Protein: Short-chain dehydrogenase
Amino acid sequence: MDVGPSYVMDDVDIVNINQYSTLTMSTWVIEMPTILITGGHKGLGLETTTRVAQLGGFDIVLGGRNHSEVSSVAHDISAKYGANVRTVDLDVSSLASVRAAAGLVQNLVQDGAVAPLQALMLNAGAQFMGPVEYSPDGYEKTFATNCLGHFLLLNLLLEDIRPHGRIVFTASGTHDPDTMDGKMVGKAEEPDAVKLANEGKTGKPLSPGKRYSTSKLCTIMYAYELDRRLRATGSSFRSIAFDPGLIVETSLARTAPPLMQRVARTGFAKRLVKTLGVTMGSLAFSGDALARVAIDPAFARASGKYMQSRNGQLIETRSSAMSYDIERARKLWADSETLVGLPSKAQGA
Ligand SMILES: NC(=O)c1ccc[n+]([C@@H]2O[C@H](COP(=O)([O-])OP(=O)(O)OC[C@H]3O[C@@H](n4cnc5c(N)ncnc54)[C@H](OP(=O)(O)O)[C@@H]3O)[C@@H](O)[C@H]2O)c1
Structure:
């Protein structure tokens, strides 16, 4: 295979992010490390998986709960691009499933079926429009799916990532109540893990929109808190939050009424929300951007940052004021450790 020059991921500053150009073969590392992506068989994640496979140079592990669907996508991508694509059964809303999946990933690496992990892309996500539902562990399902499962997965796999590896969290502009993205979905509330995990058990639950936007606020706070912990230990890993912008073509809103889904996908609706100031992404651009953030050396300095796909540009921007609250993030992390059954580690430990 004709490969481009090798880069150590840390050697390159973030330059010309706004001069965005499509990721090319000359910008990736030539060893064959592994990218693990959750929700990589559908929507945004599928675009990203396809992009990484097209580039070549990476083994790919798809983590998903629908075995036949995920396997079929893995087979298709393998056949089309010649990539080594493996799958692990993973329901991120179930802590038992996450533990089992982490073990399966470790086995794949130990058996040499895939190369060591280079990037963990915590991308799976869901919105639950109806009444409050609970995960197999008894936690509110939005928080369990978007937050706790990924939190456990990353903690279980962190020591398996190779030097200069990256952890990329798929976030959302909806987390910021001061933006139109946040206002349209529902204002994010306190990132209180215990309260969010038990939402609806007593008193009136948060609206589905608020449950989603708050879960994305927590996602970003995990990314920043992880970055602080990595820096404190001198780790070479990078922890980055990525907002793909609004992409109406995915199945994220699948629990919304069908008519609402159809209307949201019309050209008129897209123009309207764009005019109102919503951050617009697209499947092709945001999928490529997510791949870039995970593997392009240009993003080696993006740890602790919020990268956003906005109207065809990939930019570093500020997330909400609350997302930078260090004390809240520490508490969120510590409470999440308790909720998923991990021993508590003080920051910097
Ligand atoms: N679309 C947007 O406008 C937008 C904007 C900002 C952020 N995002 C974020 O982007 C990410 C991808 O979403 P998308 O828009 O591509 O939606 P999507 O098409 O619905 O894809 C979501 C992916 O997550 C997986 N997933 C959901 N629940 C899961 C679970 N319990 N266990 C394992 N996998 C699960 C889905 O798998 P199944 O097929 O098994 O359900 C699917 O592969 C999400 O984190 C979302 O919050 C999306």
Summary: The domain at 16-338 is CATH 3.40.50.720 (Rossmann fold). The first strand starts at residue 34 and ends at 38. Strands lie at 34-38, 59-64, 85-89, 117-122, 161-170, 238-243, 306-310, 313-317. The radius of gyration is 19 Å.
